[in-house]
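Hi U.,

Before I forget, here's the chain from the pilot set. I'm dumping it here mostly so it's searchable later in email.
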Amino acid sequence: MTEPLPESLDRTLDLLRGGDYVADRSLATALYLALSLGRPLFLEGEAGVGKTEIAKVLARTLGRNLLRLQCYEGLDVSSAVYEWDYPRQMIEIRLAEAAGDRDRDTLTDDIFSERFLIKRPLLQALEPHVDGPPVLLIDEIDRTDEPFEAYLLEILSDFQITIPEIGTIKAAQRPIVIVTSNRTREVHDALKRRCFYYWVDYPTAGREMEILRVRAPGMPEALSAELVGFVQELRKMDLFKLPGVAETIDWAEALVQLDRIDLDSGTVDDTLGILLKYQDDIARIQGSEANRILSQVKSELGAAGAAE
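Structure:
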């Protein structure tokens, strides 16, 4: 069932919570304004902090279709926007030649019509949808190249696409557009200017605890506190890849699966591959360093408990 767009900041926060997404007020503000004013929202931040999940939550809670364009190096118009169905066009040409019932101009108009057009996510997003305008996720835009960025400018500013053989196709209703970037390279200012911008940072310890209460409800509170404390300490270190919220949730689910009620150095060593994705990082943390961090976290939690 399609839901209307939220009419206030508080309703936006409720919408996200309804999709099990714990957002701070500043992120909800950026999202509310983007939805209200019909502007794309550009979310930038480290991998695993929850940028892509926002588009998924919006589609789910609003009852809209999710159209995802996963970006990669070499992505072009034929994969992202449209291409012509050349085999069918050739068959149509052969049939027309055999029948001899159409002149060249008529045949050209026929084969370059919408029935021979293969629509990709960007073009699909501009079409009318029964459930209302879809959520268009342009994921990891930093993986594409500058020519493709330039192509997106017309879509992000005017919500239209120009196809030389047909003309300009414009959205009757603007789709909800979420653009994400892991900042592996700088995205051009011209694209950013067409969007509202928000940097999605790692969560504070308090918000990460709240995330675990929602996403890993079977986890003991004391274990959650130890886990979050350990992850927060890791993020202060100079690692090749810091653990994101996604890794925190994965680690929590793994510890619940292992029936752990307390975090110990052996469990940390055995499960570090869930948190860290590079062997150099794992080798640096395993053993004495993991034990040091864990001892520090337990001491701080104990002191905080005693103070209460």
